[in-house]
Amino acid sequence: MKKLNIIIVTALLLVGCNNFDEDININPNVPSQASGTQLIANAMLSLSGLSSSPQGEFMSQYLSETQYVNASLYPQSSTSFYWLYQGPLINLQTVLNSADDLSGTEGPVENQLAVAKILKAYYIWHATDRWGDVPMTDALQGADNFTPKYDTQESIYTSLFGLLDEANAAIVPGSITNDIMYNGDMTKWSKLAGTLKMLMALRLSEVNPTLGKEKFTEALQEGVLDSNSGNLVFKHLADANNQNYWFGQIDLQGREWWAISATLMDKMKPVGDPRLMVYANPNRTDGDYTGLVFGETIDIDTEKYALLGDAIHAQDAPVYLVTYAQALFAQAEAAKLGWIAGGDNAAEENYNMAIEASMEQWGADTSSLPDFMAQPEIAYSSDNAIEQIATQRWVHLFMHGYEGWAEYRRTGYPNNMVAPDGADVPNRQIYIETEQFNNTDNYNEAVQRQFGGSESLYGNIWWDVN
Known about the structure:
The protein is 48% helix and 4% strand. The chain is mostly helical. Strands 1-3 form a two-stranded antiparallel ribbon. A two-stranded antiparallel ribbon has the order 2-6. Strands 4-5 form a two-stranded antiparallel sheet. It holds the Pfam family SusD-like_2.
């Protein structure tokens, strides 16, 4: 972040030194700075990065590495969050800092600010659930503060609830331009804000269920996603400039490095899950769907295992980020927990609807859906409801690895995660080493506060009390 800010400041100084010839060097037909909606659109382009990553898939054990297995076994190495701050978040903060200068010709300024706040909340929620305490209050100040303090995750959640409330309350009639996610539809943005609030509230089920229930109820009253048409989906194009990450890896590079894990296969194949045919291609040995044990290093012949399905690595394959099925699974769990009315009846209804919405989202063959739903392992059971809801949600979240990993950490399901060579699924990711040198005091304070002075992959973040 320091290097980026120095570059920005230097660029501004250079521009200031060359004002004498601005009249002949400035093209009046080219804007000198990005507009509010252009900055928001640029921030949206980073959304696919929240999902399109082998590391995220390893954290949730959706995929098994076939080539460089050791790279998937949770090495005690750091992961950078700088790209979030230097890219989408600084773009969004620039919009929020420029409220008085935004142009209403691109849609109501109130709506531009609301979308910027919703996206900011989403990105920071993603960051804090991966690393724990992260900079927020002091972050995104550019040259005014190169060494931001780390906010506690508890305070971040409180701030994000407030940010989403502000955004939802500020929305007015009228669409905005350059909206590559919802085409300016503010009703969908409002429902997204409510859904994010609801999902965040459910994260508190173990650490602060009272607050979780309160925020969950508020979110439902405000409105949440109510169909797959409202899903937050990053739509790749059949174009080299905006193509699916996995297409570049598999179709262009010819890398058969990722097989469907046995962890996932064991939850799908025995019950004939129709989504399996979308998620995976059958192996090339006998046409069967065979999962590869996560962390397996012996006899990895990619001919023998089910690799990623064609629909998943297609050039224009979408990335599903926040979905109607997630909202329904959340309501099913909330009903079972007693957070909302209806008890088991409401839990079962939402659970069944969630599975159906998931099938529809993924384009699965639902001709045999009634038979699938009637199986003992799938049919709602009051005694095993939380496990069923959590497991089916994890199956639904395929390829959104970081979100699947977060739900696994919170619930403990699915219950068949493996620990190759004793490498358990991590509880968090490690801060980038650069912070130890460039932001020493704040880094040390955050590590001491959370982990007693020594960080690792297995320190618990605030809401993970299991």
